[in-house]
Structure formats: C-alpha cells, structure tokens
Amino acid sequence: MTTMTDTSNAARFREFKMPDVGEGLTEAEILKWYVQPGDTVTDGQVVCEVETAKAAVELPIPFDGVVHELRFPEGTTVDVGQVIIAVDVAPGSGDAAPAPAAVPAPAAEPEAAEPEAPKGRQPVLVGYGVSESSTKRRARKGTAASVPAAAAAIQGEMNGHGAVTVRESRPLAKPPVRKLAKDLGIDLATVVPTGEGGIITREDVHAAATPVPAQAPAPVVAEAAPTAEAPAPAVVTTVGARETRIPVKGVRKAIAQAMVGSAFTAPHVTEFVTVDVTRTMKLVAELKEDKDMAGVRVNPLLIIAKALLVAIKRNPEVNAAWDEANQEIVQKHYVNLGIAAATPRGLIVPNIKDAHEQTLPQLAASLGELVSTAREGKTSPAAMAGGTVTITNVGVFGVDTGTPILNPGESAILAVGTIKLQPWVHKGKVKPRQVTTLALSFDHRLVDGELGSKVLADVAAILEQPKRLITWA
Prior knowledge:
Blueprint: H1 7-11, E1 13-17, E2 27-33, E3 40-41, E4 46-51, E5 56-60, E6 65-70, E7 77-79, E8 83-88, H2 149-153, E9 156-158, E10 164-166, H3 175-184, H4 202-209, E11 221-222, E12 236-237, H5 250-265, E13 268-276, H6 278-288, H7 300-314, E14 320-323, E15 328-331, E16 337-339, E17 341-343, E18 346-348, E19 351-352, H8 360-375, H9 381-384, E20 389-393, E21 412-416, E22 420-426, E23 429-443, H10 449-464, H11 468-471
Helix pairs in contact: 3-4, 7-8, 7-10
C-alpha cells in the first residue's frame, strides 16, 4: 500500500474492509471482482462476490469514487476487518495521488540490471497475486506461450529480461475456469497456461484433462457434470491418477463441522412411516389448475410443508431448541421452516421465516423463491439463520428414505422419500397406489418418543387425507 503523507491527499482515499456478512464469521474468500483499478463506483454498487462458511454474498461499496487499488486477488481468503479495496473519493482534486496499480516497465536494454523490487506490499490487480520477488509486468501473449515446459511446470513467468520469475501466488485463472478444473479433478498448478499474461483458459484445462497417449490411447472415465440437483464435482480418472483431492473450505467446511457437531452433541432418534399419498397427488394436480395458484409452483413438497406446519401447530412442544449454557429447553412460538437445497457449493438449508403464518399460495411462492435463489448461489447468510425445523426431500434422487441429521440448534428434521406406485391394500383390495416413506429425526433431549411419534403420525395422516389441512388447521 502506498503511504500518503499529505493530510488532504490521504483524505481522498477511503478503504473498504471485509465485513462480517454472517453471524460472527471470521473470514471470507474473494470469489470474483466486478471492478478494476480506474473504474468509477457509486454508493451501493456491488464490487465483489465473497464466499463465507455459510453462503456466497455480493458486497456493495458504501461510498462513491474511483477504484484505486484491489488489495487481494480472486481466490484469497481474507480475515474480517482487513482492507480489500481502496477508493479515490475525490478524483481530479489536483492533489498528487499515488499510481493506482503501477508496475515498473521492463528496461529497454536486455543487459540492463534488473531494478530491485520495492519492499512492502505492492498494489494488486484483478486476478494477479503479489510477487515478493518481482514487480515486473507480466509477459504479453506470444512470449508467455514460449515458456519451456519445465518452467511452466512450476508456473514461472518471463520478466522483461528473459529470466524466469517464480510466481508464488496460485495459478491465474478466472472463477469459471477454476470451477471447471475442480469438476474435472485437475490441479491448476500442473496446467500449462496459454492465455494472455499467463492466464489459464478453459482449453488449457481440457487439454490437461486429456491423457497423452503412449502406445495406446489412455482410457478416460468421467462422471456427469454437476447440476443443482447433483452438486458433487465430477471426477476424471486417468492412467496414473488414482485419486483426487478436493480442498474442503467455505460452505462445505461449515457443513462438515456442523454435521459432526450435531451428530455428537444431540441424541438423535429417527422414526419411519410409509403412507398412501394418492389423494395428495390428486390435490396437487387440482391445485395446478386452480387460478388462485397461478404464477406459483405447485408440487408435493408444498403439501408436505403445509402438513408439517399443521402437525407442529397440533404439537407445539416439538418446535424447540436446547440451550446448553443454561440447561434449558427454549420453546419457539414461530416456525422458520428450513428446506435443504443442493447447490454447486454444497448442501445449504435456507428457511422460510414465520412459515406458520403463510397461506398456501404464500407458502408456494416462498418455496419457489427459496429454491431459485439457492440454485443461483445467491442465498444470504440471514436466509439460513434462525431455522427451527427442516424438510429434506431425498425423493428427488429416487431414494426411498434416510436417517437425516439435525441442523444444529433445531429440534427435528423430516426426510421425504420418492413417491411411486406400489401395491397397497385400499378398501380391502390390493390396488396400485402412490406411496412414500417419511423419516423424522428429532433431538431426544427435547422430544420424547411419544411426541415425535405424534408429529410424524399427523404428517402422514394429512398426506393420506389432505382434507385434514382444513379440519385440523
């Protein structure tokens, strides 16, 4: 960072620090910069996207000005409170201003001695890391491509004097390219860059993923590309590559820690019931044609969510939390209904605030918004905070049921299996009926077997006879 000695000059530059965008989070990773040095920004404009342990969040700048310096490149994990961007809030005032991201130009003569790199932190450009050994401009297209394979293997770069300068920051690549490499199980440090300035392109990643044939073409086995419903990264298995290592950080790291904590602190009990939901499926079909439900998505999950809300209303003691510090049970008089959503960044559980107060059309609209926001990766930390009870729909994967783990701080979680035609005794005869299996896990410190059984039985009864949504509401 350039030192500003003049008071009026120093006042021109304002620094924006990494905020705590969650609840007591200590760090966040910069996923993408939307601005570069020299760009004009206005109060409230989104300048970057960061990923915390809970979600990906876009950060708006709180003042007007011209971007002077980006302190960290994309992919860097930054502590809360560290300055991430400096902005000139009084451009053109006439005061001498330090160069926003100046890099010494290479000497005209190849024989000239290389100037000593200034000590201290250097301004950082978008997508470029800080090099402690040199502040030279990156090689332009044409020279970078001529770097020998041995130098490329250590991710070197050509400076202005034909020498190889080892880059200490991680390989240069845009976020979509990094995601592609992650999905294909490719270590970017092993990829030879061909893009301008030594940036790795999509073609470079694909080239690295294709095995070089020896005597015979090497077989490549790839899984399907990840989708919103199946977020697990694909793995490419090649000759000589028997395993892939995926760094666990951000949302996935938080999920792992939370699930381990939940499994070993809350005594789980899971109960199951198989139920005929033929009438519920008929109701779903009718609601899809109802003009009062126009513009919202109607599916079985909507009726299941409403059934759980009614069951909680009939058994309010299930909606509680355990206060370990005070050794108390905290009864909740509201329901923030969590819906487990599979996203490219991992499983997240945003919740519908005060879901118990919503009508069926309102609940349908809330569910649709929740799912679409999660798939776009725009779920905020606030949307995932304060949940009380959760639904996880494993049926979308063709799974009959499971034993779901509680979200920390919640009392119960309902797993819904796939709905399929099965032979079922109906009115004394075996007939094909739409059947599913429900599983309810609950914290046995808060919910005993009787209470848990009542809640699960109520949900099953409503799905078997949906008219109970009216008679029991």
